[in-house]
Design a protein that fits this description.
- This protein is of the alpha+beta class.
- It has two domains: 109 residues, Uridine Diphospho-n-acetylenolpyruvylglucosamine Reductase, domain 3; 72 residues, Alpha-Beta Complex (Uridine Diphospho-n-acetylenolpyruvylglucosamine Reductase, domain 1), CATH 3.90.78.
- It is 30% helix and 20% strand.
- The protein is built from five helices and eleven strands.
- The strands form four sheets. It has a four-stranded antiparallel sheet.
- A hairpin with a 5-residue loop joins strand 4 and strand 5.
Length: 202
């Protein structure tokens, strides 16, 4: 079901000899959430796996939608602005030796541990990468790496992550986002777009 963790999906696929899902191994969150955000890593994303989903509307009615109806784009889908809830996802991989799949997963997880701040809680990549640019590089070059507000800090490991050092509030994170955006805009003339979703006003 769509409530399954991505890590579990990767593990089940590995045991079954279904390749192509290795990139999901280190992504936090659920299968349904990954579809809504078109989550991805290492040059792959959910839009390359999903064939069909089942959704529920506010009246409790179920319907099936093909991947072509989901409006997938870079870290987005048209489900983000919909009241539909994803309840089931049909993915398609490729037949592969489980040992090779496992090796690919280990490699992806090692890369994630080496390049991302996993020691502290975060919401993942904060900004989308502009065309031809890496948001983390832009933030670092603009002087945003290590910037802190309250207990929210732009990671020293990867500048496109804001980590919680203990008691960061949503206000701390949003304030830091504004400051980072301003720094990058002043340096490069680019306005970074959020990859994370902000819920609520306060």
């Amino acid at each position: 079901g769509a409530g399954a963790k991505l890590a579990r999906l990767a593990a089940v696929a590995c045991r079954a000899g279904v390749g192509g899902l290795e990139f999901t191994a280190g992504i936090p969150g659920t299968v349904g959430g990954a579809v809504v955000m078109n989550a991805g890593a290492s040059g792959a994303a959910m839009d390359g796996l999903v064939r069909e989903i089942t959704v529920m509307d506010t009246g409790g009615n179920l319907s099936r939608l093909p991947a072509s109806a989901l409006g997938f784009g870079y870290r987005t889908s048209n489900l983000q602005h919909s009241s539909l809830v994803v309840v089931e996802v049909v993915c398609e991989g490729v037949a592969r030796d489980p040992a090779l799949i496992r090796a690919g997963m280990v490699e992806k997880l090692a890369l994630r541990r080496a390049t991302q701040p996993l020691a502290h809680p975060s919401a993942g990549s904060v900004f989308k990468n502009p065309p031809g640019k890496a948001a983390g590089w832009l933030i670092e070059q603009a002087g945003g790496k290590g910037l802190q507000q309250g207990d929210a800090r732009v990671s020293d490991v990867h500048a496109n992550f804001i980590v919680n050092l203990g008691r960061a509030t949503a206000r701390d994170v949003e304030g830091l986002i504004r400051r980072v955006r301003q720094l990058v805009y002043e340096r490069f003339g680019l306005l970074l777009t959020l990859e994370i979703q902000v819920l609520g006003e306060d």
